[in-house]
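Hi support team,

I submitted a single chain yesterday and got back a structure, but I'm not sure I'm reading the token output correctly. Could someone confirm the output below corresponds to the sequence I sent? I've pasted both exactly as they appear in my results page.

Thanks,
R.
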Amino acid sequence: MKRWAVALFFLAPFVGEFLLGNQPIGKLGSIFLFAPMYGGGAVLIREVARRYRLGWTGIVLMALAYGLLEEGPIDQMLFNPAYVGLDSFDGMAVIPGLGISLTLLQGTVTLHTIWSICVPIALIEACAPREPWLRRGGLIAVAAIFVVGSTLLGVMQAVGFHFVASPAEFAGSAVVILGLVTLAFVLGRRTPRPADGDVPRPLVVGLTGFALTSVYWLESIVFPDANEWISAAWWFVLFGVATAVVLRWARRRTWTPRHTLALATGALLTYAWAGFSQARELDHPSFLGNAFFALVAVALAIFVWHRNPARPVPPT
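Hi R., thanks for writing in. Yes, this is the structure output for that exact sequence:
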């Protein structure tokens, strides 16, 4: 059972940093530096959710909390304009009274919630039992690794950028993060009444996931000079449509774990192509490196689907 936790521990940083194109293939060894934060966070969220039966609502809310923790108190990207090569957030869509870029906040919510946490969990869970993989001692060990690894990365970022957020920014982040975790426990345990109606085949669900997540990435590629506030508004429209579609399907009796896997696979394949664009944006493009990461993602998807054969839908 521990092997599934180890697989998730390393898949999360692979998807979150390398498949995305943030890190070139020459720095593949740095996966051991990122794994305690990415992988530790993913394993903790998954194990807590399964131990306390929080369901995917709980996982998504805790994934959102993780994203704000990483880009807030740890990386401090949300508070430090120099992190993205700017002198200030002037000219960006800034949230009044907070001084935080709405664009960066939306990116944080999207990338980490979907890809850093939920996609790796869904892929590994498709191969493994839907029960806790670790005993209490193992869970405590992963928590310690997560705290130490995240602290180390946070110190490295603070020293590297010569920037430390204000006490108010740290405190505000903590309140929001703890609030999301609390919501995960409150809402995650609720089981909505299943609705009648058919769900499209997993292939259609996967293609829908691929299309919606691809549209998210294409917006900045096709319209790189779009007004920040228009882009922010477009994000809300896309988020609303995607949420409505997924929730409508997921609440139906005929929704199965295979549909969840299809949705995650579609999002994974979006990263497979978006990584080429992201690497070029960060000025370290390597076609062979990105092609290798994309092939690994495709091979992983094939392996997972082979391990997760179709099962009959229970009668309604």
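A quick pointer for reading it: The chain has ten helices and two strands. Let us know if anything else looks off.

Best,
Support desk
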